[in-house]
Specification:
It contains six helices and no strands. The protein is an all-alpha fold. The chain is elongated, with a radius of gyration of 44 Å. The protein starts with 6 loop residues before the first helix and ends with a helix. About 75% of the residues lie in helices and about 0% in strands. It folds into two domains: about 110 residues, no CATH class; about 80 residues.
Length: about 200
């Protein structure tokens, strides 16, 4: 013989089987219209929430934990219908419509924020993974900047040395040419002196 279902299990079963067709007079018909055209499953959950939220407030006197149950139920639906928030498009739709719908419902004058939205805390491993990812990105950026500065400094030194070498080479070439020109002039003068002496000797 199976044990009787808990209050939470009974509520979850009732909420899972609840189907709501919004009337044109509903204040949320126009708000959810865009969602219906994009994702019918999330749309049906949103429509059910419009009644479940109100009904839960009416029964909170006999079930004081119903607000927590409602948050847990909706979080489960979000996890299933967004692939644990891995599906970016579905997660965006959920946040833009379902979460916004909850805010509108709790802001109703009759509701007066009777049940605030609670989200499950992230597991320690998820938090650690997120912190590690951020730390890794910071380290990578640091090394990129550091290496860029080092390479830039090396490049500047290389260019400076190349320019200095070129200037020295040009100076060396210039000095060499000047020296060659002087030597050539001295040689030419010596040859001229030899020719003059030779002609002078013959004429004598």
């Amino acid at each position: 013989m199976s044990s009787p279902k808990s209050a939470k299990e009974q509520l979850f079963e009732n909420w899972n089987g609840k189907e709501v067709n919004l009337l044109s007079s509903s204040p949320y018909t126009n708000f959810l219209k865009g969602l219906k055209e994009k994702n019918i499953d999330i749309y049906n959950i949103a429509c059910s929430l419009t009644e479940i939220y109100v009904d839960s407030q009416l029964t909170q006197s006999i079930n004081p934990n119903i607000c927590g149950f409602l948050n847990e139920w909706l979080n489960n639906k979000k996890r299933i219908n967004t692939d644990n928030e891995k599906d970016i498009e579905k997660t965006k739709l959920w946040n833009n419509y379902v979460e916004e719908l909850w805010i509108k419902l709790e802001q109703e004058k009759e509701r007066n924020y009777w049940c605030r939205r609670n989200f499950p805390s992230l597991p320690v491993t998820t938090v650690f993974a997120a912190c590690f990812t951020i730390f890794s990105c910071v380290v990578i950026v640091f090394f990129i900047i550091y290496n860029y500065s080092t390479v830039r400094g090396w490049f500047r030194t290389f260019i400076k040395n190349k320019i200095g070498l070129k200037q020295n080479l040009q100076g060396y070439i210039s000095n060499g040419l000047l020296g060659t020109s002087s030597e050539y002039s001295d040689l030419h003068s010596g040859i001229n002196r030899i020719h003059i002496s030779y002609h002078f000797a013959r004429n004598s």
